[in-house]
Amino acid sequence: MRKAGLLLGGCVRSWKSVRMASSGVARRDLLANKVALVTASTDGIGLAIARRLAQDGAHVVVSSRKQQNVDRAVAALQGEGLSVTGTVCHVGKAEDRERLVTTILGINVKAMALMTKAVVPEMEKRGGGSVVIVASIAAYTPFPGLGPYNVSKTALLGLGKNLAMELAQSNIRVNCLAPGIIKTNFSQVLWMDEAREESLKEMLRIKRLGVPEDCAGIVSFLCSEDASYITGETVTVAGGAPSRL
Amino acid sequence: MRKAGLLLGGCVRSWKSVRMASSGVARRDLLANKVALVTASTDGIGLAIARRLAQDGAHVVVSSRKQQNVDRAVAALQGEGLSVTGTVCHVGKAEDRERLVTTILGINVKAMALMTKAVVPEMEKRGGGSVVIVASIAAYTPFPGLGPYNVSKTALLGLGKNLAMELAQSNIRVNCLAPGIIKTNFSQVLWMDEAREESLKEMLRIKRLGVPEDCAGIVSFLCSEDASYITGETVTVAGGAPSRL
Amino acid sequence: MRKAGLLLGGCVRSWKSVRMASSGVARRDLLANKVALVTASTDGIGLAIARRLAQDGAHVVVSSRKQQNVDRAVAALQGEGLSVTGTVCHVGKAEDRERLVTTILGINVKAMALMTKAVVPEMEKRGGGSVVIVASIAAYTPFPGLGPYNVSKTALLGLGKNLAMELAQSNIRVNCLAPGIIKTNFSQVLWMDEAREESLKEMLRIKRLGVPEDCAGIVSFLCSEDASYITGETVTVAGGAPSRL
Amino acid sequence: MRKAGLLLGGCVRSWKSVRMASSGVARRDLLANKVALVTASTDGIGLAIARRLAQDGAHVVVSSRKQQNVDRAVAALQGEGLSVTGTVCHVGKAEDRERLVTTILGINVKAMALMTKAVVPEMEKRGGGSVVIVASIAAYTPFPGLGPYNVSKTALLGLGKNLAMELAQSNIRVNCLAPGIIKTNFSQVLWMDEAREESLKEMLRIKRLGVPEDCAGIVSFLCSEDASYITGETVTVAGGAPSRL
């Protein structure tokens, strides 16, 4: 279970204008000359992904709804020598956003669709791009007591298929990530008592809960040229929990 | 592709008070003493399902948003000697509904969830029931140009999984039907020129488009006692079009 | 878990020559004038399916590898007034069969493919037919300690897709059934100690293990005209255990 | 469609004894100190994967059934400065192998299972490893005319799930790759006339057939530490062809 926000791993090629001055860290060149906008990225899975994309050479734009969270995350990542800037996320006009946030379905699905549409022109100008939508294993097997969250995650799988179809002509690939149970503030309720954590582990093949970093490498991979023939797919990162064939 | 409405094949046991006087037609007893509420059932797939459930012995409540459509369908089915009454469908309060209908996602997912919740107490009183949600094969492989429709159908698959989990303790089973391309007014745009129809057929194993009646038998089956160990599943009725393993 | 045998619910139209004299029981006409060959049908799920198909009006040919088991099942079903005959199942020549039975993969997949091919000419002569392959939920989520069984069940899902494609032109539909944990002699090891049965039930939505009869209605349905637009699909009968979207 | 062989991307940690002397090419360190055994790797997808794993820092053991093919591939890769050795693949004893190769199902499924079991002790000694099985999109949607091939690929998806379950305790992860239509000698029949290639492309979102290199990056990723929470999953590399949700 993760924050009811969104992740947009939109890697835009060579958006040079926003590149920061070079930093001291050694970087792999996987995502060199790319810009990544990562929404809901001030902690948990989003933050781990933002850090990883920056470590792999992208300039990363960290985003969230609260200015102070954005500032804190940007400072932390810049302190690690990474090329990062921040922005507060606006989903359309304020009044629209108000209405959107009234429902998790709205937040998770419509906002994701709107965000993607918003960055498409920018990606098209650069000749293409890559979008990674963070769904959840709850899209396949619902978490108890979290109906709207679960349904919104299933809907995201459909959104990924649709955007992959619509954006292929613009050379934009769209894939989904379906994390299992990852230890974050948001999922705390699921694992904070030990008995519950043990019972969760029994459904897993790998006998530990995930950490946000487990989700970061695959996003970097999906944004890279190595994934240029992969679109409309979902990769599950869940320690072997039952998902699908 | 079918009407952006919903189908709720909620078969409630022995809701005797609304049974009509017996009719002259011979009926199988599969759904005897059950009441079926079928939404969006004044034409196309919904109407075929309503007719079939009534032929199989249920008392059927036909429902739609327009009074005149309801009246026409009820008259037609009663003319066939079937036990049918009608109601105009209200999804919550008018103002809520207004907001809901602003989006297909709202219509298809939230309304379905609300409708189900609304009939649950009635089903519980009778000791259980069965819900069949009409999704679409577009939930798996999107129809071009119909993004919100497609995504809402994917979301319905998730809704089915969630309701199956939540309602099992009330002895209510929840399953989905995923029709392929069925010849209805609603899907007309997909098949009305012949070349297009031919190209659609090429993706099918069975070389014809479906008809609404193709969807009716499985709904009756899923509402019957024969399906008492089936919940949380989706049955695809699509002439062998690619769906999933 | 069920017997490593096969089920072939091939309903052939009006194979009148083998119909037995009419019996006293009242029957529904769903499968009137059809002949059903049910393999591995002398107990458990296969027997329940054979009984149901006969009750629904088909003439049923019960089959198994041992003469005495066939005789016992035929006698029992005839004693219920059903139209049933028996045959010992030969999968090709004896020496081929020997080699086949050396592996579960062989038994479950190749034998199923060979059997189907063997009955196809008969079905074609009658204008079409229906095949139902009994796979298992273990095809999606493996049962511990039963690797070859599990893999063979996954392979059967693929076989169903392939046969559906190949046989559609002969008007033969092919579908799969994926039972969950059904109480049979074969699955005994999974549920015979009570603690184990309880832990199994926890993964289910419907809090009981299945019985063979839970699998019978859907096979009858899939063999009937009501399913004439359903091919290449799998229906899971598993009390809501996690399977797939 | 690809060679009816297998790929075993078993990356074993620090099998130093077989490391070759360092070469002149700059390498990323993703797979440093790992040994990769790649079966059926003397051309096509297998060769592309072998090359990529070596470029990413692994020592690669190229393997195939014919000595001369192995020699040629080893020479080519060593000529690129990569750390590669070769071996002719023996699946068990000769007589067993004879029987195995009589069927594609045998080759693709049993041989894969046997190979994996054979390398497990080696991986266990080193504390863990990673296996990548090359299935095919034909596992989900069969290629016409290739029944046994298709079914064997579906079976491989099940094998992946089973091995993931069985080997997790040995810290060995097992995943599948499902390539779409990749331009290789083996798949030539599918695309060599231009009209056919065009019609294939119509089912894709990305309007080109794949090349072997499209499959290489994901295998390297799945063998790396970045994928340490991914097991029992299948990644489809198929240009957006319909697969599954």
TrEMBL record, chains A, B, C, D:
Record-level Gene Ontology MF annotations: carbonyl reductase (NADPH) activity
Record GO biological process: retinal metabolic process
GO-annotated cellular components: peroxisome
Keyword Oxidoreductase: yes
Top-level taxon of origin: Eukaryota
The keyword Oxidoreductase is assigned to this record: yes
Keywords tagged on the record: NADP, Oxidoreductase
Family that this chain belongs to: Belongs to the short-chain dehydrogenases/reductases (SDR) family.
Protein name per Swiss-Prot or TrEMBL: Dehydrogenase/reductase 4
Gene source species: Pipistrellus kuhlii
